[in-house]
Specification:
Length: about 270
């Protein structure tokens, strides 16, 4: 399975973001990728602390746009995340997997919301505008079980263990990590989740300065079940590619059956 991870610098301009996403999706498909992942907030990324001025529904404008491309390009698309219309004046941070037939295979709403004070004094309070999801979500792509997660979820290993217990061999982590946290934690956490769960991790990320108030770390990557970084994006908007060898994954799990050796299981 050849996968692609798209690295973008999205803004509040939805139309411009979608045009950029289409260019990258077409490029990835041309290069032979059959599963293409977009980053968190690929269609709309607001400045930190400002009101959410755009949202959509599952199966709405954004997903319909991607469904058309999935059919035309004959690829599966991971729609990193969009602000999904919710209640109480808030949104869900929602990821969807769209099949090559244009149908939505899975919908995941980010469970863990990023409320933190960074070392540079920045205050981030995602829960002010976003509602947390509750469900662990998997889907199947070309006979492979894939698990969905988003950004800050990466810091909660129990979610990834649950995804693997439910059969995941590939896990997506679309993200928009801050520069501060990304520099020190992004690669370490991605490799840790891959190693401890013996899975492939596909992590498309936002990169660069989105506005005067917001910037993202980037360094999108694909990590194999041994923790080796197969590919990593440079500091620019780009597409990276990797071949996922599921036989290799199963060999690792067979030779070092860590998942069978667990003792503390709730």
């Amino acid at each position: 399975m050849k996968v692609a991870a798209i690295q973008m610098c999205s803004t509040e301009d939805v139309q411009a973001n979608l045009e950029k996403a289409e260019r990258f999706l077409c490029l990835a498909a041309k290069e032979g990728a059959t599963l293409i992942a977009l980053p968190e907030n690929f269609a709309y990324l607001r400045s930190e602390g400002e009101a959410v001025t755009f949202c959509d529904d599952v199966g709405g404008k954004i997903h319909s746009f991607l469904a058309r491309l999935a059919v035309e390009l004959r690829v599966d698309i991971l729609a990193g995340s969009i602000p999904e219309r919710a209640q109480e004046g808030k949104v869900y941070n929602t990821s969807a997997l769209i099949g090559s037939d244009g149908q939505i295979k899975a919908v995941y709403r980010k469970m863990h919301l990023f409320d933190a004070v960074l070392s540079d004094g920045s205050i981030l309070h995602e829960s002010l505008s976003v509602l947390a999801g509750e469900d662990v979500v998997l889907a199947e792509v070309s006979g492979v079980r894939v698990g969905l997660s988003i950004c800050y979820d990466l810091r909660f290993p129990e979610l990834y263990r649950r995804l693997v217990a439910d059969g995941a061999e590939v896990i997506f982590v679309p993200a928009a990590f801050t520069v501060t946290t990304g520099r020190d934690h992004w690669e370490i956490l991605l490799r840790a989740r891959a190693i401890e769960n013996q899975v492939y991790v596909v992590a498309p990320a936002q990169y660069g300065k989105h506005s005067t108030k917001r910037a993202s770390y980037g360094r999108s990557m694909v990590v194999d079940p041994w923790g080796v970084v197969l590919t990593q994006a440079a500091d620019k908007e780009t597409v990276i590619f990797a071949d996922l060898d599921l036989d290799y994954l199963r060999t690792i799990r067979s030779r070092m059956p860590c998942l069978k050796h667990r003792k503390l299981i709730s």
